[in-house]
């Protein structure tokens, strides 16, 4: 497509859209709205759980706007985040040699009930649903993220001062290093400020691809679950997508 001058995402336009072709669900979040959910999640982790910079969080969640809120919230208060799309039994859980339990664990109800999954232990344990509203039932020892997160304000008080050398993941990869990787991947995708990236969630589960790289480039995201490939062209047109992943 033709070259264009970089344009920042307008504050009133969605920064992250989540669409599910199987259920018809759609959630559009502006940068301010996503930031508010991330702030609530940060408050839950820091004030609700008492976690501090360097503490370890395991996130076993699919691409979703709630996953984005959990990840951004955790990173904003200096936590070290492990992320793995599928943690199968018999394989290293998130990183080899990790001391268990994690300080907090986030997982979907489906993965908790899947006998093939090896969900790690956590001091604080949250179920994160991918539907709308609270979960219909929560097993003992777990809490519903969608309920607990609302107990915390949309503005994170006393922001944590992060250094580029601080570890963003338990393997020691720093915030600065993840930022560099995100910018490099955005360059590979030819993402620029003002672009809109349409992502097939089933094919690209790593947050580097559907979250960090677009944010690093100043692009917005249309995150599509259960994407109907037969209607891809129509979806691209409807979302005004400039890039497809």
Which percent bin holds the helix content? Answer: 25-40%
List the uncertain runs. Answer: 1-7, 87-94
Mean pLDDT: 86
Question: Element order, helices and strands?
Answer: EEHEHEEHEEHHEHEHE
In terms of DSSP E residues, the strand content is 15-25%
Query: In total, how many beta strands?
Result: 10
Task: Going across the biggest sheet, name each strand in turn.
Answer: 2-1-9-8-10
Q: Taking Cα atoms only, what radius of gyration do you get, to the nearest Å?
A: 18 Å
| Alpha carbon gap, first and last residue | 16 Å
Give the tags.
10 strands, 245 residues, 5-stranded parallel sheet, single chain, 5-stranded mixed sheet, disordered N terminus, alpha/beta
What would you say this structure looks like, in words?
It is a single chain. With 245 residues, the chain is an alpha/beta fold. Helix content is 29%, strand content 18%. The protein has a 5-stranded mixed β-sheet with strand order 2-1-9-8-10. A hairpin with a 5-residue loop joins strand 1 (16-20) and strand 2 (26-29). Helix 1 (31-48) packs across helix 2 and helix 5 (175-188) packs across helix 6 (207-217).
Would you spell out the secondary-structure blueprint of this structure?
Elements: E1 16-20, E2 26-29, H1 31-48, E3 56-60, H2 65-76, E4 80-83, E5 102-107, H3 109-112, E6 122-127, E7 143-144, H4 145-148, H5 175-188, E8 196-200, H6 207-217, E9 220-225, H7 232-239, E10 243-244
Parallel strand pairs: 1-9, 3-4, 3-5, 5-6, 6-7, 8-9, 8-10
Antiparallel strand pairs: 1-2
Helix pairs in contact: 1-2, 5-6
């Amino acid at each position: 497509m033709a070259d264009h001058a970089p344009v920042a995402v307008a504050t009133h336009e969605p920064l992250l859209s989540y669409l599910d072709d199987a259920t018809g669900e759609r959630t559009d979040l502006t940068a301010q709205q996503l930031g508010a959910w991330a702030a609530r999640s940060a408050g839950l982790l820091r004030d609700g759980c008492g976690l501090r910079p360097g503490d370890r969080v395991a996130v076993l969640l699919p691409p979703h706007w709630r996953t984005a809120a959990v990840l951004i919230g955790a990173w904003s208060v200096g936590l070290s985040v492990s992320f793995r799309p599928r943690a199968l039994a018999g394989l290293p859980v998130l990183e080899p040699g990790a001391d268990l339990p994690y300080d907090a664990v986030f997982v979907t109800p489906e993965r908790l009930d899947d006998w093939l999954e090896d969900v790690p232990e956590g001091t604080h344990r949250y179920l994160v649903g991918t539907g709308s509203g609270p979960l219909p039932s929560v097993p003992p020892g777990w809490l519903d993220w969608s309920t607990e997160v609302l107990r915390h304000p949309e503005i994170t008080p006393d922001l944590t001062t992060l250094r580029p050398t601080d570890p963003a993941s338990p393997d020691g990869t720093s915030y600065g290093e993840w930022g560099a990787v995100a910018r490099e991947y955005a360059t590979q995708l030819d993402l620029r400020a003002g672009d809109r990236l349409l992502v097939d969630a089933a094919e690209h589960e790593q947050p580097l691809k559907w979250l960090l790289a677009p944010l690093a480039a100043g692009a917005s995201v249309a995150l599509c679950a259960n994407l109907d490939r037969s209607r891809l062209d129509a979806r691209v047109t409807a979302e005004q997508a400039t890039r497809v992943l």
